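Subject: Interface between my chains keeps coming out wrong

I've been trying for a while to get a sensible model of this assembly. When I model each chain on its own everything looks fine, but I need the whole thing in one frame so I can look at the contacts. Pasting all components below, labels as-is. Any help appreciated, I'm running out of ideas.
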Amino acid sequence: EAGVAQSPRYKIIEKRQSVAFWCNPISGHATLYWYQQILGQGPKLLIQFQNNGVVDDSQLPKDRFSAERLKGVDSTLKIQPAKLEDSAVYLCASSPINLRREAGGYTFGSGTRLTVV
Amino acid sequence: AQSVTQLGSHVSVSEGALVLLRCNYSSSVPPYLFWYVQYPNQGLQLLLKYTSAATLVKGINGFEAEFKKSETSFHLTKPSAHMSDAAEYFCAVRISYDKVIFGPGTSLSVIP
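Reply #2:
Try treating it as a single job with all components included. I did that and got this:
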């Protein structure tokens, strides 16, 4: 099966600019996650979708970050305006609907490495 | 508070030597525990997971981990390190039925 697709792989922007990342999960996976991984740290959950609804966005800096999954399939994560501290790898992951059995057994995309200068 | 700690941010082993990466956790629900590996410029790949069945879990690439409830540990081991094992390793614990948190990671170097 095809994996989780993410684009772009790399992005360099200046602070205060905006940027968007795209993720296409594994076909049929109802749950989609966006994680932020700062260099030297473990991934931190930003937002979780179940189909096209938000399940958890408690860690999303809503003043500058937004995400959507309008049709319950692919998703976009946007940052506007970007700050220097947003430099990180943004990982997308998906999991099947049967979360009790599969919890944690996520499939991750390769990520987008964002550098804010 | 629910958390994951990984003792040692960097571990170096000689090729052929035992690999031991440590993970301790705290969880308010019955723990599901995971080890992920991340190679340079790639996403995370699931190595193995413990979901309340056998306490000794075998994963891919010859890795295994043992769940010890009394020690709240889930250490990752491999009998003989290979150069291709050099990567970042993350331990993770379920904190709700559909959510996990990750430890800070351990960078493994393998010396020829």
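Reply #3:
Confirming on my end. Chain A touches chain B at residues 4, 6, 31, 40-45, 48, 55-56, 91, 93, 95, 99-101, 103-111, 113 (CB under 8 Å).
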